[in-house]
Amino acid sequence: MQAKEPSRFEGGELAVVLSHYDLGVIESVTDFPRGSRRSPKVGIVCERGKYLLKRRTAVKAPPDRLRFTHLVQRRLIESGFPAPRLSSTRHGEPYLQIRDHVYELFEFVPGEPYRHSVEETRDAGVMLARFHQWTEPLAEAWDGFPRGDYHDAPGVRTGLCSIGSSLSAHDSFSGDEAELQSLLQFLLGAYDRAADAVKGAGYASWPEQITHADWHPGNLVFRKQAVVGVVDFDAMRLTRRLTDVGNGALQFSMIASGDPASWPAEYDAGRLTAFLEGYRSAWELTEPQVQSVFPLMIEALIAECVAPITETGTVGRWSGFRVLQMARRKVAFLEG
Q1: Beta strands in 23-175 (DSSP E)
Q2: Which segments in the chain show pLDDT lower than 50?
Q3: Which one of 7, 87, 200, 230 is most buried, by most CB atoms within 10 A?
């Protein structure tokens, strides 16, 4: 079982899609290799400016969900939130569908990637709180769209069990089958303990609202230590805002470089503190909610590892076994 190659646009496909937009002379088209491997993107420089074209499968982007996602983005922009503007086709449609694919064209947001500074991290926390504040009134219109999250999710437990039962023969785990079983048992126990802690803090009583559900450095654009762009609203769902806070705290405090086998157990305490301070400066959290951040980080980390490993046996180009070992080190640190 091999990791899937990222999806790409074909030359003829791009020509057909771009003919539906009034962009003037096209100067250049380049691959934009960030984000989901299943949703290819290209950067476009043309007579009318710079744009980002994104493709998704129509199954993942049904019309009703697209309309609501675009509504959220428009409301965010009207409120001053740095979401990229969507460009319409020649016929005034906010997206283009050709057979099994849906295409969206966004104005390109210039800036820099995350540089791991405390200032950037604090602003990422502030911006998440503003996203929650400005989308809160739209929650009542969320009907028939995704709900739920990584907290106390049966799919995470099922995934951990399936890795041991059906993927132990994968090349990623060859020779490590015995350790794999103890590793999976530890992660399953840690996931249960974290879920129980969050439930005990009153999770069920916290109101549901729209969450971004994918708040990580790759979806934010920075300039002069501040967030100037937030992208990728495809994963939005209705759940508790603390799941965004927990995942954001994890993503913005992670110390990760190179092979996961060399990642340290600890997190960057300064960045973790800055992210939470930034969020709480814009929208306060109760003490039980603050106490839930660490266990939610544990749940988010395990869930993020499980999904790709159950599908391919790997996480990107990394061995699933080494990734699970990394998760055990970091989870043990958080629990300690």
Answers
A1: 26-31, 41-46, 49-57, 86-87, 96-98, 101-107
A2: 1-3
A3: 230
Q: Report CA-CA distances (Å) from 228 to 73, 84, 108, 215, 219.
A: 15, 10, 11, 14, 11
- 124: Cβ contacts below 8 Å, ≥ 6 apart: 114, 215, 217, 220, 227, 248, 252, 275, 278
Round to whole Å and give the CA distance between 316 and 5. Answer: 9
How many residues are given for the chain? 336
Using only C-alpha atoms, the chain has a radius of gyration, in whole angstroms, of 21
As annotated, the residues of the chain forming the CATH 3.30.200.20 domain(s) are 11-107
Non-local CB neighbours of 202 within 8 Å, separated by 6+ positions: 288
The tokens describing 327, both together, are 């998760």
Which pLDDT value is given to residue 142?
A: 86
For the domain made up of 118-335, the CATH class stated in words is: alpha beta
Q: Among 255, 228, 229, which residue's Cα sits nearest to residue 116?
A: 255
Q: What is the pLDDT of residues 24-39, one digit of tens each?
A: 999 999 998 776 667 8
pTM to 2 decimals?
0.93
User: What kind and span of H or E run contains 330?
Assistant: helix 320-335
Closest C-alpha to 301, from 319, 323, 278: 323
Q: How many CA atoms lie within 13 A of 142 on its CB side?
A: 20
The sign of the torsion formed by the CA atoms of 104, 109, 110, 111 equals negative
When the candidates are 2.60.40.1640, 3.30.200.20, 3.40.50.20, 3.40.50.720, the CATH number that belongs to 11-107 is: 3.30.200.20
For residue 324, the model assigns a pLDDT of 95
| Euclidean distance between CA atoms 7 and 195, whole angstroms | 35
Which DSSP category does 39 fall into?
S
